[in-house]
Sequence to fold (163 residues):
Amino acid sequence: MSDYPNHPASTETSTVAGRERPGTINGAFWAFLASAVIGLLSGVLAFANKDALVEATRNANRQGGAQLTEAQIDQAATFIIIIGLVIAVAFALLYLLFAVKLRAGRNWARIVLTVLTALQLISVIFSTNTIMGYLSVLAAVVGVVLSFTTPSNEYIAATKVAR
Fold:
C-alpha cells in the first residue's frame, strides 16, 4: 500500500480530487458489480441446462426438416453454451473495468456503462431469458440511474475540473 493518497494502490480513501465520493457513485459501482456477477452466474448455470438446450435443438431440427445427427445437435448446444459463457465473461469484465473508472469519476465510463446496459436491456427484451438475466439487467439499470443523479453529476464534474 502506498503512502500517497492518489496512488492507484491506495484504497483507504473514498475521495477523488479532494471531494468525497457520493453514495450514489458507490451504489452505482456495486449495482454494476452485482450485474456482472449475476450475468456470470447465469452463464455458468447454462451448463446445467444443456439437456434442455439439446432437446430444444432436437425439436427445432425435426420441425425445420433439417437432418442433423445427434452428435451435431450436441455440438451445436455445446457451442451455444460456450458462446454464451464467453459473452457473459466479456460483459462482466467490461462492467467491472468501467465501474472502477466510474467510481474514479470518469464520465466516459458512465457513458460506456449506459451503452452496455442499453445493449443488455435490448438483449433481454428481444430474446428468451431467465430470471437471472432480468435481475442482471435490473441491477445495471439501477447503476445507470444512480450514476446520473445530481450528486453523481456533481462528483464527476468536480473530478473533471480537478484533472
Q: What stands out?
A: The radius of gyration is 20 Å. Residues 1-5, 7-13 have pLDDT under 50 and may be disordered. The longest strand covers residues 15-16. The chain has six helices and two strands.
